[in-house]
Amino acid sequence: MPEKEKPRIARLTSIVTQLQSKKLLTATSLAKKYGVSIRTIYRDIRTLEKSGIPIVTEDGRGYSLLSGYQLPPVMFTEKEANALITAEQLILKNKDASFIENYGNAITKIKSVLRSSQKEKTELLTQRIQFRVNVDNEKSSDYLMTVQTAITDFKLLNINYLSLENKRTERTIEPFAIYSTQENWLLIAFCRLRIEFRAFRIDAIQKLTVQNESFQPHDMTLERYFELCRDKYRSEPI
Length: 238
Hints:
The structure is a single chain. By secondary structure, this protein is α+β, with helices and mostly antiparallel strands. It folds into three domains: 3-65, Arc Repressor Mutant, subunit A, CATH 1.10.10; 78-127; 144-235, SH3 type barrels. The chain is 43% helix and 23% strand. The chain has helices at residues 6-21, 27-34, 38-50, 78-91, 97-111, 116-127, 144-153, 222-235; strands spanning 55-58, 62-65, 155-162, 168-181, 184-191, 196-201, 205-214. The strands form two sheets. Strands 6-5-4-3-7 form a five-stranded antiparallel β-sheet. The protein starts with 5 loop residues before the first helix and ends with a helix. The relative contact order is 0.08.
């Protein structure tokens, strides 16, 4: 194989991987990612189509795989496999039980496609990595996965909430985003009780129920939310 052909083959393989992992890809984003021209990406897409990959072209939007089409399992490099094992050890220290369980199920499926030599090395690496956080393996919540699904499905949540001031309230909220700080997960949501966006510690939610009712997404981004928070706290007297 000519040396000059290797970069293109690697790029084509990577594009296929990208198509598997994302709903829609644009020629512009692919050209920027691989440092090539948009015309080169057009040629790459045509090559993949000729090889039998059913790529759907959406005019003015980008490329996607034909719905329902499944590609063979992706092969991982040694460094990629090591990254997954490192992440696994970190997640095992997480305080949300649902997150640990679901990641454990996912990583088991991923490990099943590793080559035998990779499996031996990942098992060794598992024994040689340790994160000194949450040493007692405390599990303080079990709602993170449910919250994530509610965010993407735009489903209302009813929560029984115990604040850090030990005040208990029942609220209906519109889940918006989550973030982690100081080993705790926080849910940003529009609170229908306070009529504004609020942050709720997930480990302070005593009971959570997903409602059948959906809500209309707000015209808000996570970056904008944090900007509003900074402005709010700057304006408050010390």
